[in-house]
Amino acid sequence: MLRASKLTVADGVFLWPGALDMKTQSDLVAEIFRKIEDAPFYRPVMPGSGKAFSVEETNFGPLGWISDRSGYRYEPAHPVTKRPWPSIPKLLLNLWDEATGYAAPPECCLVNLYRGPAKMGLHQDRDEAALGAPVLSVSLGEEAVFRIGVTSRKGPTRSVKLASGDVLTFGGPARLAYHGIDRVVAGTSRLIPGGGRINLTLRRITS
Hints:
The chain is mainly β. It has one domain: Sandwich (Jelly Rolls). It is built from two helices and 13 strands. The strands form three sheets. Strands 1-2-11-8-13-6-3 form a seven-stranded antiparallel β-sheet, with helices on one face. A hairpin with a 2-residue loop joins strand 1 (about 5-10) and strand 2. The longest helix is centred in the first third of the chain and has 14 residues, at about 20-35. The chain starts with 6 loop residues before the first strand and ends with a strand.
């Protein structure tokens, strides 16, 4: 499935540019939109302040990452519909096995939808017990400027442009690296119905 060569972005950060061909991308987008009929996109809010995210989110898998006024956590059901999250697409489970080699499957596929000025500030993925497992990211749709640093918020960062079909992993020394999306480059893809970018983030939660 990973038709591209692996590039090292930083210690523990690897990129497969153009890993998924156009048919695979199209098939995956179609499956995502079928699944969001049961788990629609919604806009989470920040803990405490209640300020809405600029991205819309949903999840696939046994557990879904959510954010609300009470904090960040994983839950087995959609916070709006109260129904269990749909299953993770088989293609993504196979991709996880191939790209990470981790012994256990992912338990969460966070689905972020970026449209217009949506972005994601620098943050750590640290709500998981299985910090030995890497994080896997799949980009679909419009290009995005991804920024990743080190385990200190004020440490140096580097930027990488992610295009549709790119696959990226970070783990080991980079597992708790601060990272985010500075901007999405409008007009660079027509893959997503209605435009924009979808990012799929696969994580193992329990150790």
